Amino acid sequence: MPGALAVSLGDPAGVGPELICEAWASRHTHALPPFFAVGGADLLAAAAKARGLSIPVRRIADPAEAGSAFAEALPVLGDRDGPYRPGEPDREGARLALASLTMAAELAKHGSATGLVTGPIAKARLAEVGFAHPGQTEFVAEACGIAAEDAVMLLAGPNLRTVPITVHCALSRVPGLLSVDLIQARAAITAHGLRRDFGIASPRLAVCALNPHGGEGGKFGNEEARIIAPAIAALREAGIDATGPHSADALFAPHARDEYDVAICMYHDQALIPLKALDFDNGVNMTLGLPIVRTSPDHGTAFGIAGKRQASPGAMIAAIRMAGEAAALRAGAGSAPR
User: Fold this and answer.
1) Which of 15, 43, 227, 268 supports an S-S bond with 302, CB 3.0-4.6 Å?
2) Based on the domain organization, do 35 and 105 belong to the same domain?
3) Quick one: 30 and 142 in the same domain?
4) Cross-strand pairs, 262
5) Strand partners, 37
């Protein structure tokens, strides 16, 4: 497929730059699609050296050059750069991270890149330089003209896919945020995303209960009967294969995972704990509901191990591979297993 993915640096003091370099170094082993980094050519060269990698870095003037450059060097677009100081985040690095993210999102939005892979950021540092969003998901959604509530976070790994209905909020607020409409809307976006970006013709959605034992007939809460079950009924009425409410304490057992394609979870940790327990080094955060493909490794900046050759490249490699597969499916040039 023509074109290449745009990869934003993430915080330059974190593990993002070295993992971008590691992904390029293992591009043949993992059959990765062409990609280019946005900004930080000198920084990436320094990160590669700290990682013990001997890789060429080539500046490109146009995303169209990335495909031909990719075979011989890590392509880098743009002149923005900065010093490589692993484990020492600062405002200068945050400004570079934000500039890289902004340009990469625009390139994907306008079709100059086939998709977007975002490196891990430090939200507190970005807030200091004017970043007003809860995270990159909301930033990319706004850049694409999509309301934040219509952008759905999918966590995906080799063993499991999960979607949290509520995301970054206090656990005490979750029951009040849940509604039939919210669950129905986000589950429908998920089903569409699995068809479009994963090639799953008839996605199977397992919807989690909120309370222990599914509420135990109302003894431990009534959200299952009052909100979750009606949402599942509405999804089934719309032709979506949704089941539940399932007690979350049993839904992630090996034999249970064979019965669904994605678990629809009611809150952040209900979705992320099983995903990270099963697929920590290969977990991908993918945003569904966007006009572009966007993925990210499902881990943070890991400042404490940045530059120490300890960070696993698995999630970055998986994020690049998943973005490439989804972009190929959207272009009608590829297929994906169920």
Assistant:
1) 15
2) yes
3) yes
4) 205
5) 7, 76
The boundaries of the domain holding residue 47 are: 1-147+290-338
Which residues partner with 243 through β-bridges?
A: 206
Helix H or strand E encompassing 277: helix 268-279
Residue range 279-300, pLDDT digits in tens: 999 999 999 999 999 999 999 9
The verdict on 272 and 181 lying in the same domain is yes
pLDDT in tens, 307-332: 999 999 999 999 999 999 999 999 98
Number of domains in the chain: 2
Do both 11 and 51 map to the same domain? yes
**Same-domain status, 135 and 8:** yes
Q: What angle do CA 154, 64, 332 make, to 5 degrees?
A: 50
- pLDDT in the model for residue 224: 96
Query: Band of the pLDDT at 2, cuts 50, 70, 90?
Result: low
Q: Report the distance separating Cα 280 and Cα 291, nearest Å.
A: 27
Query: Does the predicted model carry a pTM greater than 0.85?
Result: yes
Contact between 39 and 7 under an 8 Å Cβ cutoff? The reply is: no
- Please give the radius of gyration of the chain, using alpha carbons only, rounded to the nearest integer: 20
Q: Say whether both 278 and 302 belong to one domain.
A: no
The whole-angstrom separation of Cα 226 and Cα 234 is 13
In the 8-state DSSP scheme, what is residue 263?
A: E
Strand stretches in the chain, DSSP E: 5-8, 35-38, 57-60, 74-77, 116-118, 152-156, 161-164, 204-208, 241-246, 262-265, 284-288, 294-297
Last residue of a domain, one of 251, 269, 288: 288
Same domain, 205 and 162: yes
Contact indicator for 4, 33 with CB cutoff of 8 Å:
yes
259: CATH: 3.40.718.10
The contacts of residue 9 (CB under 8 Å, 6+ apart) are: 16, 17, 20, 37, 38, 39, 40, 43, 44, 96, 97, 100, 119
DSSP sequence for 101-170 = HHHHHHHHHTTSSS-EEE----HHHHHHTT--SSSHHHHHHHHTT--GGG-EEEEE-SS-EEEESS-SS-
Task: Give the percent of the chain with pLDDT over 70.
Answer: 98
Q: Please state, in angstroms and rounded to a whole number, the distance separating the CA atoms of residues 304 and 115.
A: 30
